[in-house]
Structure formats: structure tokens, C-alpha cells
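Data follows
____________
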Amino acid sequence: MIRLSNKNKQLFGEVRLPSSKSITNRMLILKKLYEPEIILENISLANDSQILSNLLNSNSNHFNVHDAGTVYRFLTAYCAVTPGEWTIEGTSRLHDRPIADLIRILQELGAEITYLDRDGYGPIKIVGKKLVASSNLIDLTQINSSQFASALLMIAPVIDGEFNFKVNTKMSSYSYVLLTIACLRRMGFSVWVRGSYIQVSKKQKFDGEYFHIEPDWSSFYYWISMVHLSESADLFFPGIRLNNMQKERKKLFEIGHPCIVMEELNDGMRIVKHTTTEKYVFPDELNYSQFPDIAMTFAMMLPAIGCKQVIFKGLQSLKLKECDRELATIEHLEKIGVVFKGQDNQWLMDASGFELKADTLFETYNDHRMAMCVAPLSLLKSIRIDEETVVKKSYPNFWKDLENIGFEIEYL
């Protein structure tokens, strides 16, 4: 447990954000399948990416992915097309998370996959073999997981047959399907997108030997929240650019303020906050269907900067993450006097009773994002965070970076 505070409420310095684990995980699978000699620069140090890298480079056919859901899903597709007998297992929480729809599609393509405990859930056994599309359409419209769709897209070049995928473009986190397409294109595959239809070429035209993985935008938003809650700030983030592969930048200016200035400078982003008496103007509703990982960060930030009421949409997938993030967010907000209620696929936040008491304790629910989303509140008053080590899953140096910028951390 830690006590986190920032008494001067100022942020000055340079922050090197972790590299994107979303891009890293995709490129590790693509490298193993298609371009073993490619050099991936700036590989994420996040626990998920390290697990995947270690497993792909091991001589074992037994994969323990621990709590890494993305690794679990990507390896399921990878093993299905890779000769050998494989078993994949993880934590009990991971085994409770959905996998059946991905396995069903793979089995329709001829995959040999067996559930070792409960039907529809891990652990699983896979016999890798050549997969064949029996028609010119692989219908994924009933799949609402972007990771399932991404896993299938990445193995598309080694599935026999000429076919299109048909996807639900309104699925939660569809932006990550677009990220997968961008990774395939960087790897030298042509990918055609026509509305709901996606086709991946069989031929590869890769003419480079290096691929540099850019910084993680989801991690950037913790710092955006801190800037909003600070009294003054001047921060520089090397490598962050608006023109990049990740789509989270679309949320960057959704909550803006005249006192905050952002500019691209010297291959990075500089953010400056000046003191001002102008007040925020908040939208009536915010939709996070494409970027659910940053929803909790905004939910904790908005009451602290004066938002009294707002509607959240697109949070349906939060229940199926590393923890039940919907419930965890509700409990986090209750501790600061904020009511957060869901009904008919929208969530109403009533922050009229917002009050942060010094040394409020926030549980992390063994979830990295539930730990980091509350950290900016320490710019208002000291807070305590339980099980702070969970940040290793995506941002191992998070607490060190905070200390370097002026936060005080006391280990209790």
C-alpha cells in the first residue's frame, strides 16, 4: 500500500510513456507468423507483452498466460494454425472471461480445440493444423469482442481460401480492429476495408527490417487527467504524436480548457497549463464504446474539475475486463461522494456531492487501470492505494515517473 500526494500541485518535467502494449502484442504475433527476422524496437515492458514474448520464444507447448486476456485470445488463434499440440491456461479470473465465440469460429474453419474443464471456458487444448475457409465469407457480425476479430485477422493470410470477413463495425473497441489492420499493413499485407467487409491479402510485401513501437495513448490519459487537476504544469512527452496508429487521440480534446495548451514539438507533445479563472464547459454525454480503457480515468477526473452531472455511454464491456470495472468504478466514486448508476446501456454520473477526504483508501481489485485512474486525485489531497504493484501489467514505471515529476510516495 502507498500514500500518494503532491503538495505543490505543480507538474514540470519530461515523461517517457511506456510503449504501446496493444501494438507490441500484435506485432509479436505477426513477427512469429510471417517475419521472424524483423527487429521490433521499443517493445513494451508491460507484463502482458513480456508474457507473450517469453511464451512465443520458449520451447514449451504449455502456455500459462496468467491474467493476460489479450495474450490468451491471440495465442488461441496462433496455436490453431501452428503445427503441434498446445495447452493454454491462466488464472481463475481469466478462465471466467469469454472465449467461446472465438473458438467456435476457429472450429468452423477446421481447428481442433478442446475445453479441458468447462465448455466455453479455459483452459483449452489445441492441435495446430491448416485451416480452410469453406465459403467466401467468414461472418463475425455476432462477435462483439475486438480481440476475437483481431486474432482472426492476424491469421487470415495462412487460412486457405479466398474470403472476406464481415464484422460489426459498432462493436465495442472496434478501433482496436483498425489498429490490427494498421499492423498488418505495416507488416506488408494489403488489407481492403469496404464498410463491414474486410479482406486480407495472402501475399506479403515487407521491405523493412525495423519497426518502432510508439508510446501508449491509454497511459497518456492518466497524465492528461493530472494536468487538469494541477494548478500549473509544463510537461513534455517524447514520441507522442497526433499522427499515429492508435485512435485514442480522438478523446484528447473532448474535455478542453483555455488554460491548457497542447502542441507538437521536437517529435513529442508539450502540455502547458496556466492559471485562469475561466470555467469548464462540459458535454452532456460521453461515449467510450471505442476506448473503454480510458473511461475510468475520465470518470474519476470529471467530478474533481467541477462536472456535476454527465451521461456515460459505451461501458458494456467493463464487466468483462481484468476485474468488473463497472462495479469497481462505482465503488471508487462512492468514496468521493459521487453516484454512478447504469440503466438502459447508459450510466448517469451525479457528482453534486463530490468530496475527497484526505487519505481515502482506494482498492485496486488486482487491476492496473483501477489503480492508475485514481492517482491524479492526489493533486487535491493525499490518497492511499492498495496493491500498487498491479501497474506492472501495463505501466511498470508509473510510480517512478510520478516521483520524478514531484509526487511524494510513502510505502505503508
About this structure: Residues 21-211 form a domain with the UDP-n-acetylglucosamine1-carboxyvinyl-transferase; Chain fold (CATH 3.65.10.10).
